[in-house]
Amino acid sequence: IFSQAAAETHRFGMSGYSANNPPDAGILEWQDRLSSAEASLKDGKFFDGVQFINASMEAYSKVLGEDSDRIVKEPMAFVEEFGGKATLEQKQVLCTMYEVRGDIISGLGAKKRAALDYQCAQSLGSAGATLAQKRSKAEAAQKQTPAAGKVPVTVITGFLGSGKTTLLNRILFENHGKRIGIIENEFGEVGIDDSLIEAGPMTTEENIVEMNNGCICCTVRGDLISGLKKMVKNGEKNDKAL
Questions:
Q1: How confident is the model over 144-151, as a mean pLDDT?
Q2: Which CA distances in Å does 85 have to 12, 91, 114, 116?
Q3: Measuring CA to CA, which residue among 161, 152, 176 is closest to residue 242?
Q4: Residue 212, SS3?
Q5: Can you tell me whether residue 91 is helix, strand or coil?
Q6: What is the chain's alpha carbon radius of gyration, rounded to the nearest angstrom?
Q7: Cα dist. 118→6, 30, 81, 90, 208 in Å?
Q8: Structure pTM?
Q9: Which of 116, 146, 204, 208 has the smallest CB count inside 10 Å?
Q10: 127: helix, strand or coil
């Protein structure tokens, strides 16, 4: 059992563990989740991958004594502060994490954030030509993204009974000539509001997506991204853009 763990820790330059001195739960946690992130990246499962890599980085941050999420949310500030006092082994781990995260985020289309993750990896001492190419490619893709290609989004929120569903039904029934897709974030385990949305002239199964018991919060939600991509894909497939 520990020979496998030792091989895994050796990969990141962390030796000294044995059956009598095994790695603690925090170390095993970030390693397991990093391995899951790399596997998801390899399989093209970017939605799952971003959850795994974020969890891995946050777990490793705690191992380093940083009890915050700056490693993910404020990566450059974290690297600038921690990079000077980090050991070579710790820098190697962080370089791997930021590069993997950059690859996953790039797969999701977030080129600006991917470039930032690659920059963090370079700031920690990774001078590989491949990493430099990834960063350059992400920055170039970011500049080429046309602003006109963006789809406007309106967020309807409010307390229970405030009239959100009523407003939504009014929009669906009005003949305004616009194509509207709906993503409903249902709070309970059993959907309620989706049954209250009336089948107006604009309503089809393709332009309504429901998420159950989900808080979007500050984390990239896989089902949210999946819902958005599903709508865009259906629009392109049927030549009916939102």
A1: 61
A2: 18, 10, 25, 21
A3: 152
A4: strand
A5: helix
A6: 22
A7: 28, 20, 17, 17, 36
A8: 0.59
A9: 146
A10: coil
User: Residue type for 164, please?
Assistant: K
Distance CA 58, CA 192 (A): 35
Asked if 176 and 238 touch (Cβ cutoff 8 Å), the reply is: no
- State residue 177's pLDDT score: 67
- Distance between CA 241 and CA 10 in Å, rounded? 51
Tokens of 104: 């996953």
- Looking at this protein, which amino acid is placed at residue 67? D
Query: Hey, CA dihedral for 145, 49, 234, 155, is it positive or negative?
Result: negative
Confidence of residue 1 (pLDDT cuts 50, 70, 90): very low
Which residues, 6 or more positions from 94, have their beta carbon under 8 angstroms from its beta carbon? Answer: 60, 79, 86, 120, 121, 124
**CA nearest neighbour of 34 among 128, 83, 115, 104:** 104
Place of tokens 């959907």: 191
Residues 33/35/37/38 CA torsion (nearest 10 deg): 170
Tens digits of residue pLDDT in 31-42: 999 999 999 999
Question: How do strand 208-212 and strand 182-186 relate by DSSP bridges?
Answer: parallel
Strand partners, 182: 208
Task: Please choose, from the candidates 198, 224, 221, the residue with its C-alpha nearest in 3D space to the C-alpha of residue 210.
Answer: 224
What's the confidence (pLDDT) of residue 15?
40
> Do residues 165 and 200 make contact, with C-beta atoms less than 8 angstroms apart?
no
Q: Which amino acid is at 146?
A: P
